[in-house]
Input
Amino acid sequence: MKVLVAVKRVVDYNVKVRVKSDNSGVDIANVKMSMNPFDEIAIEEAVRLKEKGVATEIIAVSCGVTQCQETLRTAMAIGADRAILVETAEELQPLAVAKLLKALVDKEQPGMVILGKQAIDDDCNQTGQMLAALGDMAQATFASKVELVDGRAQVTREVDGGLEVLSLALPVVVTTDLRLNEPRYVTLPNIMKAKKKPLDVVKPADLGVDVTPRIRTIKVVEPPKRGAGVKVADVAALVEKLKNEAKVI
Ligand code: AMP
Output
């Protein structure tokens, strides 16, 4: 089974982002960029499926600027066999990414596509679901366990009430939750090996996809600053404040 994994280049999760002075977005100039953490989990899961003899080939895909090649090299250092960059300087929204991935699914015919449940920059949590809809594929979001049983994907999902187990016909779209696995550290020998793995670059037009944004951001603002806390003398004072100041009880 071929596995396609979508990996997004995002601002590193340790960076405290700042809003641009004109409120048009977040300032990403000279900021450390890394692979979206949920996508690291996605690649790790694909590699584990390959180690179990379930997956035969892992293809990492990233859509965005030229520097996404670094993210793809990391994916190949973790264990992807080859990579595809859909290169564009255009701002990509989930629907555009889903369309690009759908075009690659048509071309590569994978049995499984693994994505992160959400990208930590836009927090959309949409791309996997949109891809499943566009490709008329089964979907299992927020996966905490993925197995192949009798030629079907058996996926345990984290839902509000606990865990749900689904059995799905292939091809299937899976999105990863935090507890699916713990990604391995990338070793230097594997970084060196990854430099020699194939990385194809295509443009959205080569895939026949129009990636023009459909949503316009009007304004981005910092969250309001939190005021300092106060110490209360006793429970009675706390209750009084909750009732009369905060008005929450
Ligand atoms: P989102 O719907 O934006 O929260 O993203 C969910 C998942 O879709 C991410 O974890 C990635 O696996 C995938 N994805 C989103 N944008 C991109 C992109 N530009 N390139 C590759 N994968 C992406």
Remarks:
- The longest helix spans residues 37-51.
- The mean pLDDT is 96.
- The longest strand covers residues 138-149.
- The pocket of adenosine monophosphate is lined by residues 6-8, 36, 38-39, 42, 61-64, 92, 94, 97, 115-116, 118-119, 122, 124-128 (CB under 6 Å).
